[in-house]
Amino acid sequence: MIIIGSHVGMSGTKMYQGSVEEALNYGATAFMVYTGAPQNTIRKSIKDLNIEAASDLMAKSGLQFDHVVVHAPYIVNLANPDPEKRAFAVEFLTKEVIRTASMHVKQMVLHPGSAVGLDREQAVTWIAQGLQQVIDNTKDLDVKIALETMAGKGNEVGRTFEELKAIIDQTNRPGRLSVCFDTCHTHDSGYDIKNDFEGVMKHFDDVVGIEYISVIHVNDSKNEMGARKDRHENFGFGYIGFDALLNIVYYDKFKDIPKILETPYVNGKPPYKYEIAMIKSKVFNPNLLEVIEHDESL
Description:
Layout: E1 4-7, H1 16-25, E2 30-33, H2 51-61, E3 68-71, H3 83-102, E4 107-110, E5 113-114, H4 120-137, E6 144-148, E7 156-157, H5 161-169, E8 177-182, H6 183-189, H7 197-207, E9 213-218, E10 220-221, E11 232-233, H8 242-249, E12 259-261, H9 272-281, H10 288-293
Parallel strand pairs: 1-2, 1-12, 2-3, 3-4, 4-6, 6-8, 8-9, 9-12
Antiparallel strand pairs: 5-7, 10-11
């Protein structure tokens, strides 16, 4: 069984149960949620997440909690030069790890942060210190924080494997940290995953260790390699292409970890049901976007 899914919503009265229902509607075997809007830190109480109903539905459907991922909001920055803002980031992420554990999920994806003060070495240290505090605050919880490979837009930290390794090396609980390998981001940051994926993997293994990769974000890119712009494209319709992405999805060393689509909606309609079906069939449909656009059931 291929472990493939997408980002799904979590809102309204159904909350987490609605997330499971959406994933099942797409034919997914994995999914990723934000516990609230990714652009802010406003969150509902854990008791309002409808966790029990979601758990019951997952048990009936066969979806596994090991294949569910939580994504932290974008705006939390452990590298902010303002110590009060860094302290707030630690406090929020601590609560987010607790929420993740309450949802029976074992990993949370995090954008490492941005070097607002332009000192990347200092930013790496602040991120590591912040992560250490979060880990210490949640030492009894079995939740990994998966640091995402970044495209290098602006002053993002994590655009190189070496920066991710430097963060991990500055913490004393490396078992609580992992890596989310984003295909669009690594392509945009300059790694040739289209033509030399094995070479990129060897480099990652040499620098970080391939065993650290715990989730894949499967996105095509609207940009040429090295553009450092971070603009996702639908599966097979960008500069990475269908064959290269399919190779990554079916890469043997990734067979037991969730692969998550974050591809753009097509005229306001989610593409995931069709993209997942195309990935499972391993046959590219060049007319897929038109099919999605004209599907009145979406």
